[in-house]
Write a structure and sequence with these properties.
elongated, Four-helix bundle copper-binding protein (chains A, B, C, D), Csp_YhjQ (chains A, B, C, D), Substrate Binding Domain Of Dnak, Chain:A, Domain 2, homotetramer, 5 helices, mainly alpha
């Protein structure tokens, strides 16, 4: 059973005062998935640390991947939450890194899913986020080699 | 209309492999509120930047408070997501700082709620988070002046 | 032997375009110490994870404290790096939380300083940062119970 | 005149308890540059906010790029600070994203370097970091399409 929580992501996008080239629903889903994944990874690293002395040495790779995934997902959520003077080259590269780390972390957690329930839940969070990011990536494709800023949202005077 | 998003916070707490002194439902609500508030503040700072040249100079305090609130809420969510070797003095001090910044930021956004819808939504996110944190604070009270670690969760061998 | 690195903290404060109530040298030292401490704690958590299977179970509290310290110090450095519309109540509460976590983490690392050199270095980073923060705290004291904003730096029009 | 600050990055790498495939001096330089760049960008965004009402509307792109650069550099510094179970595919993708955002941010700050000293200093921080990251990138190249983990540092039992 998945949990749900109140978020303001969609409302913040709906009240954004300038134009936006990206699909707001798709973007909101990606931002929320990244936030939920960062939380799950932080919690999974900590739950791994609370496993017994015999399990712990086998979980070090998982803990490290959790920590990387938490940091990268949090930074990516922040980048995607900003629409002003949006630079597709930055968003695209950052979302690619996030897609990679969610895959790496899902694989690590997946190795322990039968032994540890928190790894099973965290694997699910990572796989779902990876799937959503891969769907978003084409929309972020920089157009041409020019310093592409496809949604020049901010009113520059 | 508030949005909802899938989060894994409650599931991660339910699968935590050691004991926990805190109420898991209350803790999950606080962690989710902090994550949603950090996102709203990041988005509100950016939406403020996209307002017109005449509005912008009046929004600089709001932007700064948004950025502080986003950073502090994100760090606090991470601290509360960790149960291993939990130190009440750290959690208590950090949650107090988060309660302060959500109040400060709600007040700043509140000054612009009639002019800017994103400030209205962000004020709501901040006030809700402040309320939840203030409810949580007594549970985090360090007991006595000893180096209190009330929920010594990790199996130390 | 301590390392040194190029930072731009002092230069950024010296080129800040508005007035500032705080001593710039003292502030720069605190921001740099927080940044260096966050890095040391991230690295110490990881080095602990690379210790052998017999040492690892005794290091879980140290790892957790390292992770809290890294997150809180990074957020505090960001808050102190912002001078616009500075709110002493937020800075004061956040610096107090950082002083607490650097003390807690220094104590944790200190227990392992003889066994693990990285814990000895990280303890030093935490103690130095705690000392600098405690020196800074009185300068951040909110004046009275009014919504104190002592260095109202931003030109609000 | 550049400032220098005490960091523990090199010491933490020198006391790392397992093997490491990367050059420690090069890695320490990259981590320190990323930390210093994140700080400069946070401070530059805030200094831009404190500019006068006539300058501010032209600085919104610069502020947004500063905020992205700060978030991405901080996450990248954390990823590079971890050596346990190092996954080259994650580090490589994340460092590429950081190289992109430091270039984008340097270009934005560069447009304002004559008008605003803080933009000049921040451009310097970003260009230096981009140069160091581009030098590091070939060392992080994942070898082949296998789940490459070139420096499997952690003693897995």
């Amino acid at each position: 059973m998945k949990g749900v929580a109140v978020t303001y992501t969609q409302q913040m996008l709906d009240t954004y005062p300038a134009e936006m080239n990206l699909d707001r629903g798709k973007l909101a889903r990606a931002i929320d998935a990244l936030g939920a994944c960062a939380q799950a990874c932080t919690a999974c690293a900590d739950a791994c640390l609370s496993e017994g002395a015999e399990a712990l040495p086998m979980l070090t790779r998982c803990i490290r991947d959790n920590l990387d995934c938490a940091d990268i997902c949090a930074a990516t959520a922040a980048v995607l939450s900003r629409q002003t003077a949006y630079d597709a080259r930055v968003s695209h590269a950052q979302v690619k890194a996030a897609a990679q780390v969610t895959k790496t972390c899902a694989d690590s957690c997946g190795e322990h899913r039968d032994a540890h329930d928190h790894c099973r839940v965290c694997e699910e969070a990572c796989r779902e986020t990876e799937r959503i990011l891969i769907e978003l990536l084409p929309d972020l494709e920089p157009s041409g080699d020019a310093p592409s800023r496809p949604s020049q949202a901010a009113p520059q005077t």
